[in-house]
Amino acid sequence: MVLKLYGVSDGPPSISVRQALTVLEIPFELINVDYGAGEHMTAEYAKMNPQKEIPVLDDDGFFLGESNAILQYICDKYKPESNLYPQEPKARAIVNHRLCFNLSTYYANISAYTMAPVFYDYERTDLGLKKVHMALDVLETYFERLGTSYAAANHLTIADFPLINTTMTMEAIDFDFSKYKKVSKWYSDFKNNHPELWKISEGAMKEVQYFVKNPPDLTHLNHPIHPARKIAK
Ligand SMILES: N[C@@H](CCC(=O)N[C@@H](CS)C(=O)NCC(=O)O)C(=O)O
Hints:
Layout lengths: L2 E5 L4 H12 L4 E5 L10 H6 L7 E4 L2 E3 L2 H12 L10 H26 L1 H4 L6 H21 L13 H13 L8 H13 L1 H19 L20
Parallel strand pairs: 1-2
Antiparallel strand pairs: 1-3, 3-4
This protein binds glutathione.
The site of glutathione has 12 residues, from loops.
C-alpha cells in the first residue's frame, strides 16, 4: 500500500516530510488536513495521533506522528543507504542533534514569534524577540563550528528541511535575519541549489503571507490552548 501523509500545506513539519519523500523518490498520497475546519481535533484523527497534531504518516496501518520521527523512519525503512540520513554514528548524531535543536529551540522559539501571532491572539513581545535571536545565534554558532555548507554535513540531510522551514517563517513575516551571515547563506544556497524543494517551502510561505495580510478567524475551533483572535466582521 502506498504511504499516506496527512499534512497541512502551510505547516513547516508537514512540508519537511514532503521534501524528504521527494528527495528519496518515495511515492506517497498526500491527504490534506483542513486545520481551519478543525479536522485534526476530531476523535477520529486522535486515533491516528493522540497529540492531535499534523503531520501523521500512515504506512499500511502503522501510524506515526512527530515529523522528526517520520523523517527518520522513512529513511531507515525505505532508503537506508541514502546519505540524507547517514549511518555512520557521529554523522548521524549530528543530524539527530540538529533535529532535536530545531524541535526544542529553533522552531519552538521562532514559530512562537512568527507563526503564532498570525493565526492566534498572541503578541510579539521583547522576550519573544530575544528568544528568536538566541535561537539564530546558536544556529549560526553551529555553522561556524562545524564549517559545513549544510546544517549537519557537506550535503543535504533530513536536518536541513525542518531548519529551512523554520527559517522560511521569518521570511514570511519579513523578519530580517541577514546579520546571521552563515544562516543566511545556507538558506539562500538551499533556494538556489534545490529549486524543486524550495518550491514546496515557498508554497507554504505564500500561504502564511496571505494570512499575515488576511488574519484568519479561528474562533469556531474553540482551541483548547490557543486564544482565538476576534476579527471584526
Ligand atoms: N512536533 C510536531 C509538531 C506538529 C505541529 O505542531 N503541527 C501543527 C500544524 S503546523 C499542529 O498540528 N498544531 C495543532 C494545533 O494547533 O491544534 C511535529 O514536528 O510533527
